[in-house]
Specification:
six-stranded mixed β-sheet, 15 helices, Leucine Aminopeptidase, subunit E, domain 1, alpha/beta, binds ligand BES, eight-stranded mixed β-sheet, about 500 residues, single chain, Aminopeptidase, binds zinc ion, 2 domains, about 35% helix
Length: about 500
């Protein structure tokens, strides 16, 4: 992770390997005007050109990035990330992106740390030598606000949040055979205990025996087919000055084969991502604690591996859930809602004021909103609006979907149990899943984030989004806790 600092120096005189220079449409391009024109720099948002400065700036290389006339925080987060990704062999960069205020400084700092992310844990080291790819060690953000404490604090906040996003990405990218339920639970415990939040966040892990004692039939039913039994990890952060109590529930399927309702080969090829919701809620909880926000957090990572076996849950089986209700399983590939249901019931028991769950829940949500937008489904319009506003200010694309009225009846249409888990009709899958989850949140204001699309980028990197796990959800949750704390 590069160190990020602030400076009031001028772009032209700042020493760095690369100067990342934002250029707004209406701006006087000074000594660079001719070079930019010859390079075909049109100023279209996001366009970048890279060239040797020839002494015009103290940095030997310039990366010019086109910005809109009044860039938003998100424009700058993207530009900063794009800049550092283009500055491939640089050990130091200076960013002159014209932040209009402290929020924009924070976004640039986030963009730097998010944009330099890479996942190399499973790549062999280059043979026979110590020659390593050059890593960015330092980034200096040029701004007249550099000496203000609010700006320094913003950079610290950005580091905390971006590191949390990168932690979630690491978990999602880890191969599923290396992150089975017990491994994931251990990794979460180790992570919490090794961060600055360690003393403020308590971790407890329920193994399969404890889950049985606690009647968590949803989590156990999904984990039943795997040789690696399920886990529930509970994180609690209880600051003395808490103004509200937010529960976070994450889907933590370390691998989703579909179970006996087995997926196709291509369908399961990326299913290591199916724990991205749990990764996001854990990483966000650590960030919220490190930021010292006055909001009590209880987070549940509902972890299981969904596998077929001679003893796996069958379509037609009935599960006895934590909240006392019974559920007829009709498609073992719709497993996320079953593990979440127990987590949601526990959140209600913990008397949370509000609940958010985060889950790679349905392919239907990807069909509805595409690969880059998460769905927000809720039982409370006001809370849904708050979550949507948090996602906007965090720069994560989310959009509300309704829980259509008719879904309730279908959820209650099992002939043998209280609820049916799967809709026989193939329409509105994201809505039906949410209608099912709603049965487990009682009257508590709740929002469900279906991140099946944006949790993973199977293409190449763009802006601050790398290939692989994206860490989506973390920034929205931290922003939401900040809003609930009234700290912004
Ligand atoms: N984990 C999947 C959803 C998913 C699909 C996540 C694509 C990311 C990308 C989930 O458990 C699942 O398999 N859902 C089924 C539900 C269906 C059987 C009702 C689906 O969406 O097909
Ligand atoms: Zn599934
Ligand atoms: Zn799944």
């Amino acid at each position: 992770m590069p160190s990020v600092t602030l400076s009031t120096s001028k772009p032209t005189t700042t020493r760095a390997d690369v100067l990342i220079l934002g250029i707004r449409g209406d701006e006087d391009k000074g000594d660079l005007a001719e070079t930019l024109e010859l390079l075909g720099f049109s100023g279209e948002k996001g366009q970048t050109v890279r060239f040797p400065s020839g002494g015009v700036t103290a940095a030997p290389v310039v990366i010019a990035i086109a910005l809109p006339d009044e860039p938003t925080a998100e424009d700058l987060r993207r530009a900063a990330a794009k800049g550092v990704r283009e500055a491939k062999n640089a050990r130091s960069v200076a960013l002159a992106l014209h932040p209009a205020g402290v929020d924009e400084v924070e976004a640039i700092a986030e963009g730097v740390t998010l944009g330099t992310y890479s996942f190399d844990a499973f790549k062999s080291k280059p043979k026979g030598g110590t020659k390593k790819a050059v890593e960015l060690a330092s980034a200096v953000i040029l701004t007249p606000f550099a000496r203000q404490t609010t700006a320094t604090k913003a950079v610290e906040r950005a580091a905390t949040v971006a590191e949390a996003v990168n932690t979630a990405r690491d978990w999602v990218n880890t191969p599923p055979g290396d992150l089975r339920p017990a491994d994931f639970a251990e990794s979460i415990t180790a992570h919490v205990n090794s961060t600055a939040a360690g003393s403020d966040v308590k971790v407890s892990v329920w193994d399969e025996k404890r889950l049985a004692k606690e009647r968590c039939g949803g989590i156990l039913g999904v984990g039943r087919g795997s040789d690696s039994p399920p886990r529930l990890v509970v994180l609690t952060y209880e600051p003395a000055n808490a103004v509200s109590h937010l529960a976070l529930v994450g889907k933590g399927i370390t691998f989703d084969s579909g179970g006996l309702s087995i997926k196709s080969g291509p369908g399961m090829s990326t299913m290591k991502i199916d724990m991205a919701g749990a990764a996001a809620v854990v990483a966000a909880t650590v960030a919220i604690a490190r930021l010292g926000l006055p909001v009590r957090i209880t987070a549940y990572a509902c972890i299981a591996e969904n596998m077929p076996s001679g003893d796996a849950t069958r379509p037609g089986d009935v599960l006895h859930m934590r909240n006392g209700s019974t559920v007829e399983v009709l498609n073992t590939d719709a497993e996320g809602r079953l593990v979440l249901a127990d987590g949601l019931a526990l959140a209600v028991e913990a008397k949370a004021d509000r609940i958010v769950d985060v889950a790679t829940l349905t392919g239907a949500c990807v069909v509805a909103l595409g690969e880059r937008t998460a769905g927000i489904l809720s039982n409370d319009e006001e809370f849904a609006d708050t979550v949507l506003a948090s996602s906007r200010s965090a720069g994560e694309s989310m959009w509300p979907l309704p829980i259509a009225e008719e879904m309730k009846q279908t959820v209650h249409s099992s002939n043998v149990a209280d609820l049916r888990q799967h809709n026989p009709k193939p329409y509105g899958g994201a809505l039906f899943a949410a209608a099912f989850l709603r049965e487990f949140v009682a009257e508590v204001p709740w929002a469900h984030l279906d991140i099946a699309g944006p949790s993973f980028n199977d293409g190449s990197a763009y802006d601050y989004t790398p290939n692989g796990g994206t860490g989506v959800g973390v920034r929205t949750l931290v922003r939401l806790a900040t809003e609930l704390a009234g700290a912004r």
